[in-house]
Specification:
Blueprint: E1 3-9, H1 16-22, E2 29-34, H2 41-47, E3 51-54, H3 60-70, E4 75-78, E5 83-85, H4 87-99, E6 104-113, E7 116-117, E8 126-132, E9 137-140, E10 145-148, E11 154-156, E12 161-163, H5 169-189, H6 197-200, H7 202-213, H8 220-231, H9 233-247
Parallel strand pairs: 1-2, 1-4, 2-3, 6-11, 6-12
Antiparallel strand pairs: 4-8, 5-12, 6-7, 6-8, 9-10
């Protein structure tokens, strides 16, 4: 059973080599859809033998759909540039695809934030990242893309994707700005209306939910900062929705 690694990128020169190196021995081909990076992302990917497709970003669904449509192997494995396959997961994937009758698998992530493995703050995050290629597709909108495998049973693997989504606090807020804008645009496209309560009450409730009930408090200072920053995400997203509606 052969595997296509599919990935989308934009200016990921600081991450991509580690991601592609972690897939060595697993991926039989690499399909990379790049949103016209201005750094060395494409150059590094080519050094790993990646097939490069460059196109303007429309949505995550569109970009990953393009990567999937360009893959040619039996299975498609989706990895982001800030992720790595753990050694245990590499072995598990190779053993599983040889014998399984499932058409797709959910993979868990272990997230690192500001130098600390976050064993409590992030809710256990299983995403469907491995699928038989033929008959698979991506569905979703601007932000929330979902890999849909062909009809059949879907399983869960045990070993982790190692995810380091933010290099530092400045990088966190770079992504924060992008995702809150995409989220606001997505809500506006669905006809969602601005609600003042989201600005007044949502932030403290979100902080309590993440810090106390999701046990971010057990992740020390990093857990506190994660809960604090995350609690402002819906507030800023709705403020941007208000701005979009006002401009209309």
């Amino acid at each position: 059973m052969s595997i296509s690694l599919i990935m989308i990128t934009k200016n990921e020169e600081k991450n991509i080599a580690a991601a592609l190196e972690s897939a060595r021995g697993v991926a039989d081909e690499i399909i990379l859809v790049d949103s016209f990076s201005t750094d060395k992302t494409v150059e590094i990917a080519k050094s790993y033998g990646a097939k490069i497709i460059q196109k303007q970003f429309v949505s995550f669904t569109d970009m990953k759909g393009t990567a999937l449509a360009s893959a040619t192997k039996d299975w498609a494995l989706n990895l982001d540039a800030d992720e790595k396959l753990s050694d245990g997961l590499k072995k598990e994937i190779l053993e599983t695809v040889k014998t399984t009758k499932n058409t797709g698998f959910y993979l868990p992530s272990l997230n690192t934030f500001l130098g600390r493995e976050m064993k409590h703050s992030f809710k256990q995050d299983y995403k469907l990242r491995l699928s038989k290629r033929e008959g698979a597709s991506y569905k979703g909108g601007l932000v929330h893309e979902v890999l849909t495998p062909p009809a059949g049973e879907i399983g869960h693997l045990k070993n982790y994707i190692l995810h380091t989504p933010y290099r530092d606090i400045a990088h966190y807020f770079e992504k924060f700005n992008i995702y809150t804008s995409l989220g606001a645009r997505s809500m506006a496209a669905r006809g969602k209306k601005f609600n003042l309560l989201h600005l007044l009450a949502r932030q403290p409730l979100e902080f309590i939910k993440i810090h106390i009930f999701r046990l971010a408090i057990l992740d020390g200072m990093q857990g506190f900062l994660w809960a604090l920053f995350s609690s402002f995400y819906p507030v800023v997203k709705y403020a941007k929705l208000w701005e979009i509606n006002r401009k209309k």
